[in-house]
TrEMBL record:
InterPro entries: Cadherin-like_dom (IPR002126), Cadherin-like_sf (IPR015919), Cadherin_CS (IPR020894), Cadherin_N (IPR013164), Protocadherin/Cadherin-CA (IPR050174). GO terms for biological process: homophilic cell adhesion via plasma membrane adhesion molecules. It is found in: Cell membrane. It is a single-pass type I membrane protein. This is PCDGH protein. It comes from Gymnorhina tibicen (Australian magpie). Residues 1-26 form the signal peptide. Residues 65-129, 130-238, 239-343, 344-448, 449-558, 582-679 form the Cadherin domain. PROSITE patterns: CADHERIN_1, CADHERIN_2.
Length: 723
């Protein structure tokens, strides 16, 4: 390859400035650039063509997904630039068209665009001959006008840049003629203008120049040495000008592709034909071999349809006298289904919030099968139970989207397999697994284990005692599932409930705020609210009904006879003791009085029983076990004392039992007038006792006053002494 001159550089610069862009369809952008552009050359304003403004670029994160980074995108302005030198001949060979396709990805929202950059040929390759010197033997008997095919030059460019014309240095004995093939290519032929005389001149030195059709044109030369020989006047002749064959890729080495045949009318060594390659591309000898004697073309290397699907090269037949003829061989490679689809994960959005709407894109895939036709037609499906579906996009891209609502509480992880299958027979397939985490949103309120709780607490409990523990569960995770407990009111209102019980925010334990009294409050209800830590928070409420259980903490209280009778406070006058008058004529069973008592407790703790514990005449009186009625046990006799004292005890049935006593004074007399003397003696005895008690109280008060004055005097003396 020759060095390019300044004119070529200017042509390349002009090609950069004339770079074209257009949209071929929705989500596809096409550009056209010239090959051999330097690194950093502008391809086109990709962001603007995708409809992205400069302000959106940082958030949309525009990037490319091509495997080999021929191009790069500027993150600041969104322009597409050349990342490395592009050699069209190296990338696409002899193909008439050459392009590079890749995907452009943008985020927020996630989308994919297909970009195709067409690489246009520039005339950067000069024609080249396979040999530096062409040896041509021409018999001296060859008549003028005979044509001798010459080796054609090869130009790696395509299109107009590869169309070659030939020129020959001026010589009176020879001229140049061009033979046009059906495909438009021209083959040089050396035309003998005058008869040769070996005795006068044994050889001729000519220069053949090949010029391509580029602007500016490039050229290559080869030296043509004509040796004048004795008569070998018939060149080999091929049976066909073009030999064609169609073979499948992956053909084993040594397989026969085709056979060429050329005949020579001469005899002896001049009629013996040998076959060889002409000026062929470098890859042809590594894939094919020609038998020099039989003309069989066989494979020597692996054929790959995906690399190249057609080979066109020339063969030459040379006889023993040095005459040469040429033919063209065209081998078409047919595709075999030897490539499984390739799955590339372009983007994966994980975790996915569980409230994501149906149709949310969670992954972008690209599936490519290098095969052609049905062998390269790919279908994709999802295997698994996840609520996802796959949707085909353009250019072999697929979107994995949500097919239904997600629920993290049922499935916190989505695991699905993408299966890509081509249309070959038998079909080839490949798969890849997608794993998506589902993130939690606060869509579940706490749920109590019971809608209503019942708690039983003994009265006289200690403040702070555990009453009951409530439990609520939240199916969400993290802060959304962290439950706190609060009092939300109750039968006594929120303030009243707070005065009775408190709830621990984390554990849900209810504690008594004070000691309960069954006689004042037998039951109450509070509402407990469970609230999670989400935003906004969700809550639910449960009712806790607390029942206070009775303890035997109240002794029976005697209503009659009055408990204070006969037992006044010190210093006060004794109240007259109640008395009952029983006639001496009373018979057994006579009702003397009835002891009346009550108990504030409930149940067995309030069941009362009566028992006579003391009496002046124990055999004279009896008391009913349950009624409390005091009756005479026998008839009253004259021997019984006029004054009788009866003490009865009242007991409840608690554990332990509590009791109270009732004292009843009975006077045995036929009438009230007869009983008055007995009553006056009792009053006088009471007044003497009261006077004696008053004397002792006055004495104690005087002693206390004297001690106080003595202490004050000692304190004053001690202070004066220190001063």
């Amino acid at each position: 390859r020759q060095r390019r001159g300044p004119g070529c550089g200017r042509a390349l610069l002009g090609a950069v400035l004339l770079c074209l862009w257009w949209r071929a369809a929705a989500e596809r952008v096409r550009y056209a650039i010239a090959e051999e552009l330097g690194r950093g050359s502008l391809v086109g304003p990709l962001a603007r063509d995708l409809g992205l403004s400069a302000d959106e670029l940082p958030a949309r994160k525009l990037r490319l997904s091509e495997e080999k980074q021929y191009f790069t995108v500027n993150e600041e302005n969104g322009n597409l630039y050349v990342n490395e030198r592009l050699d069209r001949e190296e990338m696409c060979g002899e193909s008439a068209s050459c392009s590079v396709s890749f995907e452009a990805l943008v985020h927020n929202p996630l989308n994919i665009f297909h970009v195709e950059v067409s690489v246009e040929d520039v005339n950067d390759n000069a024609p080249a001959f396979r040999k530096a010197v062409l040896e041509l033997d021409i018999g001296e008997l060859i008549p003028p006008g005979t044509r001798f095919p010459l080796e054609t030059a090869r130009d790696a460019d395509v299109g107009r840049n590869s169309l070659l014309t030939y020129q020959l240095t001026s010589n009176p004995s020879f001229s140049l003629a061009l033979k046009e093939s059906p495909d438009g290519s021209k083959h040089p032929e050396l035309v003998l203008e005058t008869a040769l005389d070996r005795e006068k001149q044994r050889s001729f030195e000519l220069v053949l120049t090949a010029v391509d059709g580029g602007d500016p044109a490039r050229s290559g030369t080869v030296q043509v040495r004509v040796n004048v020989t004795d008569a070998n006047d018939n060149p080999p002749v091929f049976s066909k000008g073009v030999y064609e064959a169609r073979v499948a890729e992956n053909l084993p080495a040594g397989s026969l592709v085709l056979r060429v045949r050329a005949t020579d009318a001469d005899a002896g060594s001049n009629g013996r034909v040998f076959y060889s390659f002409g000026n062929v591309p470098d890859d042809v000898p590594s894939l094919f071999a020609v038998d020099s004697e039989s003309g069989e073309v066989r494979t020597v290397g692996p054929l790959d349809f995906e690399e190249k699907n057609k080979y066109v090269f020339g063969l030459e037949a040379r006889d023993g006298g040095g005459l040469v003829s040429h033919c063209k061989v065209q081998i078409d490679i047919t595709d075999e289904n030897d490539n499984a689809p390739e799955i590339t994960i372009l983007s994966l959005s994980s975790p996915v919030p569980e409230d994501a709407p149906v149709g949310t894109v969670v992954a972008l895939l690209n599936v490519n099968d290098p095969d052609s036709g049905e062998n390269g037609q790919v279908s994709c499906e999802l295997s698994g139970e996840a609520p996802l579906s796959i949707v085909a996009s353009s250019g072999g891209s697929y979107k994995v989207v949500t097919a239904s609502a997600l629920d993290r509480e049922q499935a916190s992880e989505l695991r699905v397999t993408v299966v890509a299958r081509d249309g070959g027979r038998p079909a080839l397939w490949s798969s890849t697994e997608l794993v998506l985490e589902v993130s939690d949103v606060n869509d579940n309120a706490p749920v109590f284990e019971e809608a209503a709780y019942s708690a039983y607490v003994w009265e006289n409990n200690a403040a702070g005692a555990l009453v009951v523990r409530v439990q609520a569960r939240d199916a969400d995770a993290g802060a959304n599932g962290r439950v706190s407990y609060w009092l939300a009111g109750g039968s006594a209102g929120a303030a009243g409930a707070a005065a009775l019980v408190s709830v621990e925010a984390r554990s849900g334990a209810l504690y008594a705020q004070r000691s309960f009294d069954y006689e004042q409050c037998r039951e109450f209800a509070v509402a407990v609210r469970a609230q999670d830590g989400g935003a906004p928070a969700r809550s639910s409420t449960a009712t806790v009904r607390v029942f206070v259980l009775d303890r035997n903490d109240n002794a029976p209280r005697v209503l009659w006879p009055a408990a204070g009778a006969g037992a006044a406070a010190p210093g006060a006058a004794s109240a007259p003791a109640p008395f009952e008058v029983v006639p001496r004529s009373a018979e057994a069973g006579y009702l003397v009085a009835k002891v009346v008592a009550v108990d504030a407790d409930a149940g067995r703790n309030a069941w009362l029983s009566y028992e006579l514990v003391q009496a002046s005449e124990p055999a004279l009186f009896g008391v009913g076990l349950h009624s409390g009625e005091v009756r005479t046990a026998r008839a009253v006799s004259e021997r019984d004392a006029a004054k009788q004292r009866v003490v009865a005890v009242v007991k409840d049935h608690g554990q332990p039992a509590l009791s109270a006593t009732a004292t009843l004074h009975v006077v045995l007399a036929e009438s009230l007038q007869e009983a008055l003397p007995e009553l006056s003696e009792r009053a006088a005895g009471g007044e003497a006792a009261a006077a004696e008690l008053q004397f002792y109280l006055v004495l104690a008060l005087a002693l206390l006053s004297a001690l106080f004055l003595l202490s004050v005097a000692l304190a004053v003396l001690a202070r004066l002494r220190r001063a």
